[in-house]
Amino acid sequence: MNPFLEVFTKNIIPIFIVAAVGFFLRKRMGLSTKVLSSLTFYALSPALAFSALVNNQLNNGEFLQIAAFAVISSFAMGLIGLVLGTLLRLSRSGIVAVILVLMFANGGNFGLTLNELRYGEEGLARAIVFYVMSTIILFTFGVFLSSMGRSSARESLIRLVKLPAVYAVVLAVVVYTFNINVPVPLMRGIEITGAGAIPVMLIVLGMQIADVNSIEGVWVSIPASLARLLIAPFIAVLVAGLIGLSGLSRSTSIIEASMPTAVFTTILATEFNVRPRLVTSTVAISTLLSAITLPLVITLLEL
Known about the structure:
This protein is mostly helical. The chain has helices at about 5-30, 35-55, 60-85, 90-105, 110-145, 155-160, 165-175, 185-195, 195-210, 220-245, 245-255, 265-270, 275-300. The longest helix is centred in the middle third of the chain and has 37 residues, at about 110-145.
């Protein structure tokens, strides 16, 4: 089978099928997005992060490399967003919106699923490191950028402290470093809880897309989407080479960085009134286009 079609049929189509279930549940049955989002955020996702990291037991050097990759690649895309917004002669809020949609990739419900489908548990564990680091950046720098000074450092820190996934990663690192044996019943309970994260996250993705009511600022959202999907992979390749990522860590990290715009950017944009419809449009367009760009990236870069 053609490599592109193989990636598309085996790794991409299953993701969109599950997301379509969420889209249908939201559109036809009015199922609450908030309930499932909260369930994922506070329970399923942290359990998945802990169990995947503990069971895979990445060495400290590899963990730090992936974390550094997430930080450098995210801020590199933020700079590109600043340049793009300036070239498009956008207002201050418009530039902030473009920085948000380029800087933060959907490494959670989409990226984690794709990496698990393609590389199994080993790939998932590495992808989770990127996801957690990018989430930390989102709740610190992302909040500060969106608020443009209206949110204090203390408020950003409080938001960060409330991130359950951060505690899950810290605990996983402690368990590995000190070789702590987690009681079998407890570990199995965490694993079962985490196993529900991937399908529920995909259903939430479909439900969030269903909430997109209009496509605004196509002349901005289309180039922003293309930059997110086409420039990010090559930035990722450069950063991976710079910090010496190789093997499975390199592949999973590049895929995470190549994801469409993170859905959570719409929440930030709405909360701080930073062109929310433009941001939401970019999320929708980049997610749909990624069905084509992601197989291309994986095929061309031989990931």
